[in-house]
Amino acid sequence: MTVQLPVPAATPPPEASRAAHALTPAQLAAALASDLDRGLEEVEAQRRLAECGPNRPHEVSRPPYARLALDQLLDPLVLLLLAASLVSIAIGNHIEGAAIAAILVLNGILGFWQEAAAERAVRSLSQAFTQSAHVVRSGKETRVDAECVVPGDVLVLAEGDRVAADARLLSVSAIEVDESALTGESLPVGKHPLAVAAETPLAERTPMVYAGSAVTRGHAHALVCATGQATELGGIERLTAAARPPTTPLERRLSRLARQMVVLGVVLTVTLAGLLLVRGEPAHEAFLLGVAVAVAAVPEGLAAIVTAALALGGRAMATRGAIVRRLEAIETLGETTVVCSDKTGTLTQNRIHVAALKPARGFDERELLVAAALASSARETAAGFSGDPIEVALLQAAASRGVSLSRLLAERDLLHEIPFDAYRKRMTTVYAEGERHRVFSKGAPEMIAAARDDPATLEAAAAWAGEGLRVLAIAAGFTSLETAFDETVEEELELVGIVALHDPLRPTAKEAVAAARAAGLDVRMLTGDHPATARTIGLELGLDEQAVVARATPAEKLALVSELQEAGEIVAVTGDGVNDAPALRKADVGVAMGLGGTEAAREAAGVVLTDDDFATIVAAVAEGRRIGDNIRKFVAFLLSANLGEVVLFAVAVAAGLDPPLAVIQVLLINLMTDGLPALALARDPASELTMQTPPRRGDYLFDRRTWSALAFIGLLVGAASTAAYLAGTHYGGDSAQTMAFTTLALSELVLVFSIRSPTLAAWRLPSNKWLDASVLASVGFLAGAIYLPLAHEPFATVSLPLAPALTAVALATVPSLVVETTKRLRTHRHGNRYISAPG
């Protein structure tokens, strides 16, 4: 049955398309110079297409590849290493120069790839626009390419169609539209042509259909008022294009650390090289030592190890249902302070269930469910039930109580159906039962005559609605064979009862939210659903009203994320629809739904959930914290090693000694003997306190106490290595450099076990087989560099006799012994607990 409703007069605003929902069809047609019956003439449609442009999202220009590549070279740390590489090559140390250059190329490729991939987010929105459309032109219905739809076209919509442009409904027949990707409304929305107030929120503009939404039931004609970038979908695309996430906490901290290391490296290089020049040493030697100090001051493998550690974390997250699209999102999840979660499908099951039944006097629950099942158009298939989600829920509830739909239908014949529409808010079926016709009707309680006459029923329905439940009244009765099948059959029915439906929480949701809050996370729920529904779900989760935002538009979500970020929060946003894309992209880390989400949401996000479960987000946060803790561990390890190398050079220059290490030896320690254990630290297990403490805040990787501890460890390593160098001069021959090299490398390999915790003894920490294997491999590599004759010339080493070798090994254990003794003294004073990260 087609319904055309009279609408109140309205004054057209200056821009009719922005307030089309408040205009009559005639007023909008006049503003758009269109004919409601004939549509546009083909010639006029082509003219408008040339004037307005194609109906598609804006093509976002891809940033030049050359600029993306150049950005990878502008980091201070990269520039310092580049200078060291060039100087090394210039003075003839080709191996050292090539090694440093290889590291820079690897880091540059990884960074370039990640930057280029991020630009796909905006372009993915084009997939939400349909490919073709059915329109009326010159009085005839025709199929055209969706890009050719223009303002003033009359769209013909049917079940299964995707809407090609924003349009104002002219006539409808029981039409419902799925707008969830655009508005966040969890259920299909009934539509009708009745105008609404100009200030009506987007999700409640019932006379409008929007580009990207899908028709789930019925058919309609609609007048196109906006296309391309002028549509609501186009507006979301503009928001997404403008939304740029801030730099991640890890990027900020490593950038600050890089600047500090650059300053330290330059100052030390200039100072020590200057001392040599003042002392009368040749400029060539001064340059050589300057390069060695610069290389010693900078952990060359740091960026590559961080990337590898994040990649390992990504694999671990994947096993827990979180696919990482951007590596930096891993550590950022661990730093998150606020989680803004979508409701439908993430916190709830996105499956409508019957929550409660209230039979009317004289009926029982089974009779109520029989009437509800027969007042439905959903049907039973081999795979279950198919049709409208609400009707499927009614049939599932009936089946669970032994009511067989197939048996009910076998006992009677369906004669007529008056479909549901948004204006009538009810649906009615008529069956042949013997010599009479049986009528069943379901709909909003205020629209069912029998329910309207029962104050107690209306009161109960209002109470359920106040709890965020969807309420239906079910009525039934008989009509004679002579009665015409029109709306009059709905007037003399008896109330059978009312049914409450809702989208229940996931079984893990409440516990997961509690775990997140216990970990210091501020959990908020942003949804496009009705306020009553949102409030009810929030209360079930233990969230107060301030933590729940209903009817949230894309712009409002984006504004909230920006506001939180400006307040210093690290924000994670979850979402599944096109309407979530701007907030997902702006967030410090966006989390998209992989099962029910749109491609636009997935492309805008850094993490995609394979199970759409909030509990997986909490698990990912825990994994992110573990990775963040481990990154701080191996950065602390690498820095303490580099400080030891700098101390060794500084003492040697101050004492007028020869360079204690060759540049290639410094590189070998930094990349091989230090690099492997540092990477193995990324696999350290999580601390028992990981999800019991608040998230870290601030732009500093370490606090002052940790820096003091690292400086102390660096002095110990430097002192032990200097002692080995001096012992080597005592033993004579060319063993001094090799002894310093051996002690320096071994002391760091022993210290890596101690640096895993600032409080707990190394032998009491959880085992890490990867670390054990990496240390053994590094020791083997070190032994080969010292005792294999072919390695002597490339690595500037000599074979050590037994006495020098034992001396070097003994000195290498001293720093770790001192650190462990200090831990034990601190434990007696402050108590014993396992803290995973330094500081």
How many helices? The count is 30
Whole-angstrom Rg: 35 Å
> How many β-strand runs?
22
The helix/strand class is alpha+beta
Strand % is 15-25%
Shape: elongated
Low-confidence stretches: 1-14, 117-130, 831-839
Distance between the termini: 72 Å
How would you characterize the largest beta sheet?
7 strands, antiparallel
The overall average pLDDT, rounded, is 83
Binned, the helix content reads 40-55%
What structural keywords apply?
839 residues, alpha+beta, seven-stranded antiparallel β-sheet, seven-stranded mixed β-sheet, disordered C terminus
3D architecture notes:
This protein is α+β, with helices and mostly antiparallel strands. Helix content is 49%, strand content 15%. Strands 1, 2, 3, 4, 5, 6 and 7 form a seven-stranded antiparallel β-sheet that branches. Helix 4 packs antiparallel against helix 5 and helix 26 (704-731) packs antiparallel against helix 30. It is elongated. The termini are far apart.
Gist?
The protein has 30 helices and 22 strands.
Element layout with pairings:
Blueprint: H1 25-32, H2 42-52, H3 65-71, H4 76-90, H5 94-118, H6 120-123, E1 132-137, E2 140-145, E3 154-158, E4 166-178, H7 180-183, E5 189-190, E6 208-209, E7 214-226, H8 232-242, H9 249-278, H10 283-297, H11 302-318, E8 322-324, H12 328-335, E9 338-341, E10 353-359, H13 365-374, E11 379-381, E12 384-386, H14 389-400, H15 405-410, E13 413-418, E14 426-433, E15 436-443, H16 449-452, H17 455-466, E16 470-479, E17 494-502, H18 509-518, E18 522-526, H19 531-541, E19 548-549, H20 554-566, E20 571-575, H21 581-586, E21 589-593, H22 599-604, E22 607-609, H23 614-654, H24 663-673, H25 675-681, H26 704-731, H27 735-754, H28 769-787, H29 789-795, H30 802-830
Parallel strand pairs: 9-18, 9-20, 18-19, 20-21, 21-22
Antiparallel strand pairs: 1-2, 1-3, 3-7, 4-5, 4-6, 4-7, 8-22, 10-17, 11-12, 13-14, 14-15, 15-16, 16-17
